[in-house]
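Module 6 notes. Inverse folding takes a fixed backbone as the condition and produces residue identities as the prediction. Think of it as a translation problem where the source language is geometry and the target language is the twenty amino acids. Below is one complete input and output pair. Work through it position by position during the lab.
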């Protein structure tokens, strides 16, 4: 999650068989509990839900143990809580698994395949490979690397490397207590997609109560994507071979070239969006971060133009001491009885070869549980990365809603197409019934 935890979006999944050489897995998204038997079970389709974090349910070990893992395109190592505590009641017990194998320090997995970990792997007192993960919000987890059998539907995947974590700390313990761990999905050699060998994956997140899908693999003829999906605009991934102190080489990095508010391009040079000689300033696409964060000068320009274009439409919150999530200080007062926002300017993120347009109503977010007099408070969903100590642009999942996002690993590119993600789900026959619940 790119050193940002904040809010996640939440998915629970029922998984179906894949071939030994994985072709496609499709996960329908929804914001509800999925009772057993309520989900259609066509081949290779997976059901999940999301509200504030994105999770998938599967089994690990021999005999299999049920686990629930947050999916994160900004992280490499998948890991599970292996020490049940009152704070983390959901855990994996390695002592109960006959296929569990700890990884020693001398293993090439420990010495070579952990090279992109933000904190280098170390050797513990038992000569086992030890991993420590930490995030900008002070969340952390540490434990030993191990391998075990992950079962996806009726398919068993032996020897998948993950972290068996003995201790964790969290700034959001209530949310983290609902899950057993995290599934890393970035470009690192130990990520889930890398170990499984998927050539690409895609997702489509809806802002409505039916929430889209995740497709692992090509989709092929079963999905028949090309017959109905709008042609994708591709932007190349930015890859560098030389290690730089502030550049995450295994993140999904693209080149942001400008930002437009309605028809007004922000008056910034392209150099404002380029990484510097230390690697600071890369642009990462991250499913583990809710909102989008911009480096200070770019954020200031966007804030100024958005404020200018909404000056006669919205009442600004006049409270210089209020900053939502420590990074968003442009907020507005909306009457509590007002169900719809007035027309607001869209914000377009201009990449090399592609654009992502955030509709005006999606540019603001209502702060949960906060009111000022008879008004609710809504804040701009772009934040100042400088205030978080983050040396990067981070594109969060809130601004990826109703965009088909394809991560083409073979061709090193990301494809974008604006689409109704609820209708995409219907194309795959993934509509679900039930009482909706938001967490």
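Target side of the pair, the amino acids:
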């Amino acid at each position: 999650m790119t050193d940002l935890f904040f809010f996640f979006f939440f998915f629970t999944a029922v998984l179906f068989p894949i071939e030994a050489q994985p072709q496609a897995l499709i996960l329908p998204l929804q914001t509800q509990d999925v009772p057993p038997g309520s989900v259609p079970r066509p081949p290779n389709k997976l059901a999940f839900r999301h509200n504030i974090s994105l999770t998938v349910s599967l089994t690990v070990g021999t005999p299999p143990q049920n686990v629930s893992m947050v999916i994160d395109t900004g992280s490499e190592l998948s890991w599970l809580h292996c020490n049940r505590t009152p704070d983390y009641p959901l855990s994996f017990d390695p002592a109960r698994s006959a296929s569990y194998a700890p990884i020693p320090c001398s293993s090439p997995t420990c010495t070579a395949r952990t090279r992109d970990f933000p904190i280098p792997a170390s050797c513990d007192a038992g000569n086992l490979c030890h991993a420590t993960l930490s995030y900008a919000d002070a969340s952390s987890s540490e434990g030993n690397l191990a391998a075990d059998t992950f079962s996806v539907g009726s398919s068993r995947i032996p020897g998948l490397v993950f972290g068996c974590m003995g201790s964790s700390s969290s700034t959001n313990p209530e949310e983290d207590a609902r899950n057993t761990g995290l599934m890393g999905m970035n470009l690192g050699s130990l990520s889930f997609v890398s170990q499984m060998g998927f050539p690409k994956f895609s997702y489509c997140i809806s802002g409505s109560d039916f929430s889209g899908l995740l497709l692992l693999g090509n989709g092929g003829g079963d999905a028949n994507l090309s017959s109905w999906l709008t042609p994708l605009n591709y932007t190349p991934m930015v890859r560098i071979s030389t290690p730089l102190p502030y550049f995450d080489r295994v993140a999904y990095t693209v080149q942001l070239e400008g930002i437009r508010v309605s028809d007004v391009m922000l008056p910034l040079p392209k150099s404002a969006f380029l990484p510097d000689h230390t690697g600071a300033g890369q642009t990462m696409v991250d499913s583990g971060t809710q909102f989008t964060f911009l480096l200070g000068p770019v954020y200031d320009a966007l804030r100024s133009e958005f404020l200018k274009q909404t000056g006669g439409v919205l009442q600004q919150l006049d409270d210089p001491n209020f900053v939502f999530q420590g990074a968003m200080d442009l907020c507005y007062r909306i009457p509590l009885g007002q169900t719809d926002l007035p027309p607001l300017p869209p914000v377009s993120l201009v990449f090399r070869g592609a654009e992502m347009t955030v509709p005006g109503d999606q540019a603001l977010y209502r702060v949960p549980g906060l009111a000022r007099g008879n008004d609710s408070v809504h804040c701009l969903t772009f934040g100042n990365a400088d205030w978080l100590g983050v040396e990067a642009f981070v594109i969060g999942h809130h601004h990826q809603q109703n965009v088909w996002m394809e991560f083409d690993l073979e061709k090193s590119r990301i494809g974008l197409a604006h689409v109704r993600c609820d209708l995409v789900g219907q194309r795959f026959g993934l509509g679900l019934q039930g009482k909706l619940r938001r967490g």
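Reference fact for the lab report: Confidence is low (pLDDT under 50) at residues 3-21, 28-52, 432-439.
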